Amino acid sequence: MKKMELLSVLCLVALTACGTPDDNRDTSLKEALKSKFWIGTALNVGHIFQRDPRADLLIKHQFSAIVAENCMKSMYLQPHPGEFFFDEADRFVEYGEKNNMWITGHTLIWHSQAPAWFFVDETGADVSREVLIERMRSHIHTVVGRYKGRIKGWDVVNEAIMEDGSWRKSKFYEIIGEDFIPLAFRFAHEADPEAELYYNDYNEWHAGKRATVTRLVRDMKAAGLRVDGVGMQGHIGMDYPSIEEYQAAIDDYAAAGVKVMVTELDMSALPRPQQGMDGANITDTVAFRAAMNPYTAGLPQDVSDRWNKRMGEVFKLFLDNSDKISRVTLWGVTDGGSWLNNFPMPGRTDYALPFDRNYEAKPVVNDIIKMAKTK
Ligand code: G3I
């Protein structure tokens, strides 16, 4: 370890160990929330291989659950037919086991980050329904089977329903039809009967999506399939969704008879490029890029205050619903590593997570710990 890194680690240890009586720095999120829900984070490959000692310390100190941000997606696990690459996923699972963490597998069936070969034959034409079902079966059996008894829950299907409640016209849907979802759950259950199985999606507070997802869950359960939970990703904004909308969605999914999980929580502090602004003339201008990336030198105090307040309100909602919510997972460890620095525009400086670029807890962390103690 380099001298500077060692110094930072020592500082972090000192900071996390020596809280004053009126703060909670000596308490971690995982300690404070242990009787409420798992508190998780998404690990990138650098985290998995422990390349950043400060991040490593933070992950182990604060979190009781992990999910892989990218390395278990099908394009990485099975880049070519029948050729699997498990090096990173194996290390990820070992990391979770060594640190007694709840390990979630993300994700088995997703239209995005699936390898192109999955859907086509050697001539480039779409494969038949039977062939695609067999590829799904083989992929799910191989991956879930490898980690049987070790990965505790799987995002079986990701992002299949649109906000208006219609089905995403993915290759899975076009070639197999609506059946691809129950089939995926059936294959996952065959491969590991003990594993929890989840449907995972974003913006799941939209009424249309809520209606279709709850119907899907109820139908699968009525058909005797194992479905344990709905993962609400939680890529939220400073002004959406409202706490009431969020509450109504949590109630709906819980009423369908499954656990609710917040699986990919983050909250951008940056302006959202609006539809219609993305014409080349506008987005190419230096002025536009600067307007969309206003906080490169740090987050102004008033914006930071609003961010912390809103994130606190969101956690209050989760704590109020801890009888329904089994896990809350942040999508990343610190602001510097958040995918939102590159989405929906590349190269921005966002402030989306409860831990900042210096690995320091933002005020909301202390607020969450206090709330957890009193609820
Ligand atoms: O690994 C390559 C690297 O070799 C290359 O040099 C680099 C250049 O851009 O790209 C790297 O791949 C990137 C990958 O993340 C790993 O960093 C991809 O371009 C990039 O598209 C990919 O983005 C991920 C995205 O899913 C893909 O759709 C984000 O990190 C990840 O946070 C995001 O996660 C998704 C969830 O899985 C599902 N829900 C939404 C969420 C946010 O989009």
In a nutshell, what does this entry contain?
Helix content is 42%, strand content 14%. With 375 residues, it is an alpha/beta fold.
Question: Would you mind describing this structure in some detail?
Answer:
It is built from 15 helices and 9 strands. Helix 1 packs parallel to helix 4 (53-62), helix 7 packs parallel to helix 9 and helix 14 runs parallel beside helix 15 (363-374). The radius of gyration is 21 Å and the shape is globular. Helices cover 42% and strands 14% of the residues. Strands 1-2-3-4-5-6-8-9 form an 8-stranded parallel β-barrel, surrounded by 5 helices. It is an alpha/beta fold. Strand 7, helix 11 and strand 8 form a beta-alpha-beta unit. Bound molecules: ligand G3I. Ligand G3I binds next to loops.
Instruction: Provide the structure class.
Output: alpha/beta
**Tertiary shape:** globular
Helix percentage: 40-55%
Number of strands: 9
Main sheet, how many strands, which sense, barrel?
Answer: 8 strands, parallel, barrel
First-residue to last-residue Cα separation:
41 Å
Share of β-strand residues = 5-15%
Q: Estimate the mean pLDDT confidence.
A: 93
**Strands of the largest sheet, in order across it?**
1-2-3-4-5-6-8-9
Instruction: List the helices and strands in order.
Output: HHEHHEHHEHEHHEHEEHEHHHEH
Q: Ranges with pLDDT <50 over ≥5 residues?
A: 13-22
In DSSP terms (H or I, runs of 4 or more residues), the helix count works out at 15
Bound molecules: ligand G3I
Radius of gyration: 21 Å
